[in-house]
Amino acid sequence: MKIRDIYEFLNSFSPFELQEKWDNSGLIVGNMNDTFENLYLSMDLDLELVKNLKENSLVITHHPLIFSGLKKVNYDTYSSKILKELIKKDISLISMHTNIDKTHLNRFITEEILGFKIENQNEFIANCSVDMSFDDLLKHLNKRLNLKHIKFVKIKEYIKTLSICTGSAMSLIDAVDTDCFITGDIKYHDAMEAKARGLSLIDIRHYESENYFNILLEELLKEYLKKNKLKAIITASKNPFEFFIEGENIE
């Protein structure tokens, strides 16, 4: 199958033109007229994963390998080391980042994984009405996302409304008008800002909040792959972070 065929199908349900200006979704490595024999789905790429991929393959990831222009390809950075392996093995790469965030991923995580009902959603932020204590909300998120520990800013004991955005979305704080904002990669000064605004925060981390991309995409592609006699292989990139708790070392 040609890359162009599956690219056009991906574009039909999550148009690449919807991506943010700073994003780099689309065909990153390869040519539209190239053909492939194997299909992999992964949230990210890491060097160990790429070394285990079969030659003449197509990988569809959530996060783009390259965001801005490369001035050097000297194989000493994360992206250039992986790029070298992809080219050596004739592996093409398509990434679906902010386009699928807007069309599918945020809704999928909020409703299917976390079990909340979305009342309204802008491009990225899903807003929900809930009826639970803050502590019960923490327990719920811990169970659904298998979080070993959770970083938070607690303003209210009881949560009636919340906003959710997977990945890293503290730059969107001005668009949040609920009791609690749930996202990842929350920094110290983000917490101070939220506290001043009377907004509770819960950090569900970047990797954990988007690691269901593979499951979502496999479901979206299921009928297309069946029709074209293809099988998608789900691969799991490793979370680069590990977390220390006295007496044990956990991911």
Feature tags:
251 residues; 6-stranded mixed sheet; 13 strands; 8 helices; globular; alpha/beta; 5-stranded mixed sheet
**Fraction in beta strands:** 15-25%
Largest sheet: 6 strands, mixed
> Radius of gyration over alpha carbons?
19 Å
Which term fits the overall shape?
A: globular
> Order of helices and strands, N to C?
HEEHEHEHEEHEEEHEHHEEE
The tally of strands reads 13
As residue ranges, the low-confidence spans are none
Helix content, binned percent: 25-40%
| Strand adjacency order, main sheet | 5-6-8-9-10-7
* Helix/strand structural class: alpha/beta
Quick check: average pLDDT? 94
Give me the number of helical elements.
Answer: 8
Query: Span from first to last CA?
Result: 37 Å
In a nutshell, what does this entry contain?
The chain is 34% helix and 25% strand. With 251 residues, the protein is an alpha/beta fold.
Describe this structure in words.
It is globular, with a radius of gyration of 19 Å. The strands form three sheets. The chain has a six-stranded mixed sheet with strand order 5-6-8-9-10-7. A five-stranded mixed sheet has the order 1-4-3-2-11. Strand 2 (38-42), helix 2 and strand 3 (57-61) form a beta-alpha-beta unit. The chain is built from eight helices and 13 strands. With 251 residues, it is an alpha/beta fold. It has helices at residues 3-13, 47-51, 78-88, 98-113, 134-145, 188-197, 206-210, 213-227, and strands at 26-29, 38-42, 57-61, 92-95, 118-121, 126-133, 151-153, 158-168, 180-184, 200-203, 232-234, 243-245, 248-250. 32% of the residues are buried. The longest helix is centred in the middle third of the chain and has 16 residues, at 98-113.
